[in-house]
């Protein structure tokens, strides 16, 4: 009787299933890549720009020619008041798109596919918010161009205008974190848009964006004076019309920093849970 000796099989190498650590540098690179993806989406779907292109034109023409004579005596005198107000309203309401598009991408399973890629998990979220800054810049440019065409000549000069534009975009970026959180938590994009408009419309119209609060009832003036939108509008007017960096600019920047400090970690945590 013979015994057959067989060579023992070598153990099969198991795939490395340990999660890959993403460096901070790669996280930033992934964020910019996702931001570029967001810009490409705008290129292939230009209707996404309708709100930031059409809205400032319509609102500026409508409010100026309807209320300019009654409020300021003539259209030209009303422009230093209405242009900063329209700018703030347009850019802030444009930040709602961040939450709605985020919710749409999550519903379509786009972020599920991103999870299989060797990228930072936060990159799709941070990239989407960064890409929307381009939309804010377009809205700001269109608003000022319409104002210049109508005779708006701010005394703040180029520096004042650029400072006002940067301030508005920084504040809109901070506010977009709020709507991003709503996009993560809510179940439908239409719900995100509806609730966001319900919050923003009272804040923008019950402010000093379009009229002098002194003409309002005393109880409403109290709300307008503490409304953060009023502080931002006043800051934009000071920068653009006078070139003055005042207390309202400081309050606007502090408010933006507080919103990001509170909402960004909360949004990221909920986003990680959902994805």
Brief account:
Helix content is 75%, strand content 0%. It has 275 residues and is an all-alpha fold.
Provide structural commentary.
The chain has 275 residues and is mostly helical. 75% of the residues lie in helices and 0% in strands. It has eleven helices and no strands. The chain has helices at residues 24-44, 50-72, 75-94, 96-107, 110-115, 123-149, 157-185, 189-205, 218-226, 228-242, 247-274. The longest helix is centred in the middle third of the chain and has 29 residues, at 157-185. The termini are far apart.
List the keywords.
elongated; 275 residues; mainly alpha; 75% helix; single chain
Low-confidence region ranges: 12-19
Structural class category: mainly alpha
Task: Describe the largest sheet.
Answer: none
Helix-strand sequence = HHHHHHHHHHH
Q: What is the overall shape?
A: elongated
Helix content: over 70%
Q: Gap between N and C termini, in Å?
A: 63 Å
Topology, number of strands: 0
Radius of gyration based on Cα positions: 24 Å
Q: How much of the sequence is in beta strands?
A: under 5%
Topology, pairings included?
Elements lengths: L23 H21 L5 H23 L2 H20 L1 H12 L2 H6 L7 H27 L7 H29 L3 H17 L12 H9 L1 H15 L4 H28 L1
